[in-house]
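Example is below:
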Amino acid sequence: MLLRDDSMMKQFVRFIDALRANPGRSLGARVARPSAGMRRLRLLVSLSIMTLGLLALLHPGRTFSAESDKPVVFLAPVEGMIDLGLAPFVQRVLDEAAAAGAAAVILEINTFGGRVDAAVLIRDALLNAKVKTVAFINKRAISAGALISLAAERIAMADGGTIGAATPVQMGQGGAPEAVSEKTVSYVRKEFRATAEARKRPPLIAEAMVDADVEIKGLVEKGKLLTLTTDEALKHKVADFRGNSIESVLKQLDLGTAEVRRLAPNWAEEFVRFLTNPIVSSLLMTVGMLGIIIEIRTPGFGIPGGLGIASLALFFWGHWLVQLAGWEELLLFASGLVFLILEIFVIPGFGIAGVLGIAALLAGLSLSLVGGGATWEFVLMAVGRVVFSLLFAVVASLLLLRYLPRLPGGRRLILDTGLTAGAGYASAPEEDRSWLGKSGTTLTALRPAGIADIDGQRVDVVSDGEFIESGAPITVSRVDGNRIVVRRQRTSTERS
């Protein structure tokens, strides 16, 4: 609009040319005292700049252009496996769309399904969204993908699309899917029904996608799971309209002129999805426990301890971000480690502290793998993963501690030097080694150290690991330097 005033523009051009020809000098009366038209031009430019500045302050982060009056639509992909790392991404898309005043959020769905608890989190986010949501099924929404689709306000399906087949399964031995209990099927069936009811869709059809015992005459017989094609979904009011592209979907939503903002998971969300992958999380647990066990059994603090702490930190950080691990799980895990350290270094034998430590470790790690809506079968599978990881870590640590000194650089971690007499180290005195094999009676309880009466002499002794009460018969089993180690003397009745 401003550029159409030719006279004002010519004056502005002459003004600039004069500045270039006479830098730092007076431009004469004509330039120094601009005309009324030039003053109006300067005033309009100044007002425009001030207006844009005020608008930028009032609406930070927005870009104003000639197309700013267009509606905005956020487009996000939901593809591949539905896992817990996908839930924060969908929630971020919904939050950003609501903050930007978007006209709609379109989820382009193409998935064979995934975790039930992840689908439940996304379903809840869609039902509570403050922006219009649309599920564009291109080309399939199977299992968990069907629940996500049903939670959207509108459903569009491309030609050749499918939705359904949502009965819950669990992975058995060899990775083959196995049936779950009726209790689990009942829970998932009601989740589908409640979602369909919230969006005014046929609830019985939603149940038939989960439970093969649901029969719908003319659509699915008993014993068969329901999966709908695009035509069937449109006919039975599950889908709202047909769309083969984003453009056609927008057109039928009366948003054909909308600005489409395509979002994708950022690097942090992709990294979290990687950390919460079942294989990766199991590996992190194993490496973490293996590093801690080796660090406890070796002097000082080095690479194994650092690697173990880093692995466990990544495990809990990833599961914290997807709202699986919380302070409760962290405290359980930490208390388990404390109990086990007390059992190993402070309390003799193996008792309540050891049992509590193992139980707390199992609980802390297992609960970090289980989310809302998880079935009992999934909980047991999570516990099994943790048990397998811990057992593997223990076995691997025993093998490493045995063969580590033979590996390059292993002698730096293991003390493998003998203390010989030639180097100035003395063995146990002859009078101490003379106690070997003698018997006596404890004068105090051995916890594990105490005092015993051996051949009429009071002697400082140490038990071989067990608690021995006062007055119990003992036998000297070995002499380690100046330390006399004893064990309880078994009676003939106890031996038989």
Remarks:
- The longest strand covers residues 72-82.
- Residues 376-403 form the longest helix (28 residues).
- Confidence is low (pLDDT under 50) at residues 1-6, 23-32, 56-67, 424-428.
